[in-house]
Amino acid sequence: MLPIILAAKYTEYMLLGYGVSALILGIVIGSIWWRYQMLQKDEALLEQLEKEEKP
Amino acid sequence: MTTYHPNRTRLLNMMTYISMGLVFLSSLMVFAYARPEALQGNAQKIFYIHLGTFFGSFVLFSVAVVGGIQFLRTRNNKWDILGLATIEVGLGFALVNIVTGSIWARPIWNTWWTWDPRLLTVTIMWLTYAAYMMLRSGIEDPERRRRFAAVYSILAFSSVILTVVIIRIRPDTIHPVAGGPSVTSPDASGDFNMSPRVVQTLMFSIFTYIVVSITVAWHRIRLENRAQYIQSRKVELLLNA
Asked: Are B174 and B122 spatial neighbours (Cβ–Cβ below 8 Å)?
């Protein structure tokens, strides 16, 4: 099966299509992950500040 | 204030693993099971992710309509978060759909882009939802922002309906129809003669990207819930200082 696929034409467009798709979806998922990490840092800072507030 | 639901987190984790498994299986089917098309060669394989991501964005934009209607009925913030999350993630999926279509068009239509009716309506659809994100962030009053977003998400869906319908009613489009009735295929057989392997791979890819889109949108909802929870804690801390 693999030789049939590799022998077919326009393989470069198939690779480009899937590569760009992975990049766009990676950016969407990565941005959610990154923002979540930033929020966790914020939360840790808040907890520290709340502790300092309490006598 | 947002509360933590351990059962929901477990379900979301499960959905995430299922999505990853589905993407792996779907890739296996695309690259090792479905045979290349005789005329289009491997460029035809783009079609699986192109259609899959379109259905993913279609489902998300439909859910945004439900979120909009429910917000206007109940004024509950959770529906606004649902609308925001589904439109943001839907935009990403719609972008993949547009870009993969353009890459497929280069060898098949001999051009990266043409102002075909379908390409025009899908661009309008994408810009309509992109404008939602920009306009939403421009309104400072939260209640007004939520009301505006709810109405906009309902009205914006007309661009999705137009995108779906256009290839079935305009005879001058060169965009192929995979299935269902159209001007060029009144018997609903579509413009392709698909082998059983291609049909199975296509159906599985569509299912995969619908599940993936829902999972990613759910993660986005969790992020927004968390952001609003932390914001309320910040305000509380400032008020007590």
From this structure: no
**Is A28's CB within 8 Å of B89's CB?**
yes
What is the model's pTM? 0.91
Q: pLDDT tens across A19-34, in order?
A: 999 999 999 999 999 9
**Domain-wise residue ranges, chain B:** 44-174+194-240
Q: Which residues of B touch A17 (CB under 8 A)?
A: 43, 45-46, 49-50, 99-100, 103-104
* Whether A2 contacts chain B with CB within 8 A: yes
CB distance from A25 to chain B under 8 Å? Answer: yes
B96–A10: do the CB atoms touch at under 8 Å?
Answer: no
- Measured in degrees and rounded to the nearest 5, phi and psi for residue B53 equal -70, -30
Angle, CA B48 vertex, CA B121 and CA B198 arms, to 5°: 125
B contacts of A4 (beta carbons < 8 Å) = 35-36
pLDDT level of residue B4 (50, 70, 90 thresholds): low
Phi, psi of B40 (to 5 degrees): -90, -10
Dist. CA B181–CA B73, nearest whole Å:
36
